């Protein structure tokens, strides 16, 4: 862009971006003064210029420069926006660990990237050993969206549905598969030993279902890459058969009171094509899921049954009144199925003291970092 092309509208957009970014950084100082101080020192460099440089191969607080567009998808490659602490145009990289952090319903991947940076700092990781990727599931109206990207309608991405605009027909499950394949490419990341998949809120709804449904876990293990899933505060879970919490146990509810409660995305009846072609029943799915490395977490104060973003549909409500209750019920449900089907399961769960639903408070807890990355403690 030449100086002559830099119009009054461009200037107004620049000021708007500056104002929005400054407010985010001001909020960020509450939980990470050290990184925030560094960010403020480079604010003049953080405008979304047409040829903004990619992130350097060191720890990055420059959010605008950390936004990158990668090419994923084996059969029909497509563009996908991510935030990363490495320059993904300069590969191979020798990270031993990748952390994929999926945003909530607001699709604010930039803010989740900042939170992820702080988590890595608390765990004493660096960009040299740990790659952070915050993927951005976008809709057409989002800034930076492109017809070369899969674009979803509203929040359909969090259910695993297919994109409807841009590159259509790409499910969010397939997008996660393609990101995992991208990371598992030994030409790009020859030393990778672990992928940690984290989802919060709407991102956790997607991640819990992905942990149940994907077929990549086994092949990755055979390739020497361990996969772990962290499910943080989803509004609902996918159940493996028709029982739901009731009193001290589990039983099949009267469907007349809640018709379709066991359809996908709350159960596995009428499943998406991503699952349908696998020809697995509930017991087989649970056996596979029980063998995967899953950790559940929720804020101890995420106990508001009227929370704005809490799923209040019948299929979700019969799982419990609040996110705390739904997490505890689902862990009890795992034990119920374990006894019924004689399948061992040990998926830890914990509550973050003093935290409600906000991702910043949840993931800036030392206890959270200790539990997600226990090998570092």
TrEMBL record:
Matching Pfam families: Abhydrolase_6 (PF12697)
Molecular-function GO terms, alphabetical: hydrolase activity
The keyword Membrane is assigned to this record: yes
InterPro entries: AB_hydrolase_1, AB_hydrolase_fold
Residue stretches making up the AB hydrolase-1 domain: 99-261
Record-given protein name: Alpha/beta hydrolase
Protein keywords: Hydrolase, Membrane, Transmembrane, Transmembrane helix
Organism: Herbaspirillum chlorophenolicum
Source superkingdom: Bacteria
Transmembrane regions: 28-47
